[in-house]
Amino acid sequence: MCLAIPGKVVDKFETDGVQMGKIDFDGITKTICLAYVPDIRIGEYALIHVGFAIERLDEKSALETLEMFRELGVLEEELGAVQESPLAV
Amino acid sequence: MKYVHEFRDPELANNILSEIRAVATRPWAIMEVCGGQTHSIIRHGIDQLLPESIELIHGPGCPVCVTPLDMIDKALAIAAMPNVIFCSFGDMLRVPGSEKDLFRIKSEGGDIRTVYSPLDALKIARENPEKEVVFFGIGFETTAPANAMAVFQAKQQNLKNFSMLVSHVLVPPAIQAIMESPTNRVQAFLAAGHVCSVMGYTQYPPLVEKYKVPIVVTGFEPLDVLEGIRRVVVQLENGRYEIDNAYKRVVNFDGNIPAQTMLAEVFQTTDSAWRGIGIIPQSGWRLSEKYRDFNAETKFEVTGINTVESPLCRSGEVLQGMIKPHECECFGKNCTPRKPLGATMVSSEGACAAYYNYGRFTASA
């Protein structure tokens, strides 16, 4: 559960006054809280942990990490469980 | 046994390993604090690629493993109550309490839901105003900002039916406790990269000075771990002790200030029990006075908890680096990830589960 996965910001919006966004993880899109990286822009990458962006990441590092997670099957492990959840947004 | 060619950049991995071999002349014991690093080390056989004189001691940085037994028992008691929807990260469902685990409570009719984010639990609370929704807020500093935000929003939205069972633990006090232990063998630390992405590493220079111990902020990927090890070995061999950052692409000295501001708003530090280790002063967070209405522990007045740890389980010794998982008599026999005696066999970040999943049944496997 301590895993943080890189994802790309594809949309930004506010919900109840909180900065939220759509994040694309290698084809899987999820709604994520961006309140802790308020200046992040669409097209930039961040590390995502339990539904929150915790830090920015440059594109090269993000793509390399995603590639490694994909090879290890970690993406399905982390995000697959999310998709099964009825709560996935 | 894994091989270097499985690394993302085998040439770089080989170069780092060659440097470590060239510089290492004496035995050193290095602790990787974070369970994610332990997982990476065992999965990629990093410990077996290193010179024999370098020992990696697996630290207590698996939140699932160190959540104290009385908290698990409280979670079980609350989850079994009628009218409660109990929400948790999936890893916690198989953690053994004194008598049962959350899966068992679920099979007995408890409404237990696995969520990806604490904000999912908040959503469930909004959608079920007639129910009490409780979130099991565990984790290290990495996870705490998410849980803090859920409580902050619950207060802002005046959600009366949401509360959190909080069991947050902190890395720097644990490092201090390890260094103060009379049985300590650790000579250097790989600090947990994602914890530092939130908190920065402002808290480490005093520890480095006081205990004359190198601390290197380290990431989780195999190459990150190798580089962290290389940097501590260089320091150790040269008699230096410094704070260093081998995870600069994610971590800066000050950390994530908006997240720290939210943590200071919602939590305050407290003495905290660590499963298998005991109480460490000022090593946890609890809800501050302003947010006490959201404290599930007081809301549900769970009393009469009488914790009983498995007499066979040696996870405390594993968590403190005193034994390796396969040295426990129960390992792989009456304790497996499907039927765990202790929490270290549950989470994929637990040392016992990592050893089991990657076939480390003997010292030489």
> Any low-confidence stretches of chain A, pLDDT <50, length ≥5?
82-89
Radius of gyration of chain B: 21 Å
For this structure, the quaternary state is: heterodimer
As a percent range, the share of helical residues of chain B equals 25-40%
Q: Using DSSP, what is the number of strands of chain A?
A: 5
Q: Describe it for me?
A:
The complex is a heterodimer of chains A (89) and B (365). The two termini of chain A are 19 Å apart. Chain A is of the alpha+beta class and 89 residues long. Chain A has helices at 59-72, 74-84, and strands at 5-15, 18-25, 28-33, 45-49, 52-57. A five-stranded antiparallel β-sheet of chain A has the order 3-2-1-4-5. Chain A is globular. In chain B, the strands form two sheets. In chain B, strands 4-3-5-6-11-10 form a six-stranded mixed β-sheet, sandwiched between helices. Chain B has a five-stranded parallel β-sheet with strand order 2-1-7-8-9, with helices on both faces. Chain B contains 16 helices and eleven strands. Chain B is globular. With 365 residues, chain B is α/β, with parallel strands linked by helices. The N and C termini of chain B lie close together (7 Å). Classes of the chains: A alpha+beta (89), B alpha/beta (365). The A-B interface holds A 1-4, 16-18, 33, 35-38, 47, 49-52, 54-55, 57-58, 61, 64-65, 67-68, 72, 81-82, 85, 87-89 and B 8, 34-36, 43, 61-64, 89-91, 113-120, 123-124, 139-140, 142-143, 145-146, 149, 153, 156-157, 192, 194, 197-198, 220-221, 249-251, 256, 258-259, 262, 347, 349.
